[in-house]
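Work Package 3 (structural annotation) set out to generate three-dimensional models for the target panel prioritized at the project kickoff. During this period the team completed the workflow that converts sequence records into discrete structure tokens, so that structures can be stored uniformly alongside our sequence database. As a representative example, we reproduce one entry of 102 residues exactly as it appears in the project archive.
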Amino acid sequence: MKMNRWMVWVLMACSAGSACANANLATEHGCINCHGNTARGEAPSFERLAGKLAKYKGDEAALATFVVKYRQGQVFEHVDAHERLSPEAATALLRWLSEGAH
């Protein structure tokens, strides 16, 4: 697999911690393929997603509701990769994005 700048950044910047764990989770689940430096098609970048999801920062109830809708394809249309995520992985990734994806 060819490494792009996002993957290099994740590998260089991450030490122990939840932010890095979630950046790694984004890499493991292939999120970077559509939302990385070179977004695929109409997929928004991580930066753009972080901006849109900032309203959920610190609001666990709203985030939990969003996770359910996200996994059911009610947000962003039906995206198989989103719907295949476990509730735990989706929550971790969306929380990471709501906190700025740093």
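DSSP finds seven helices and no strands in the chain.
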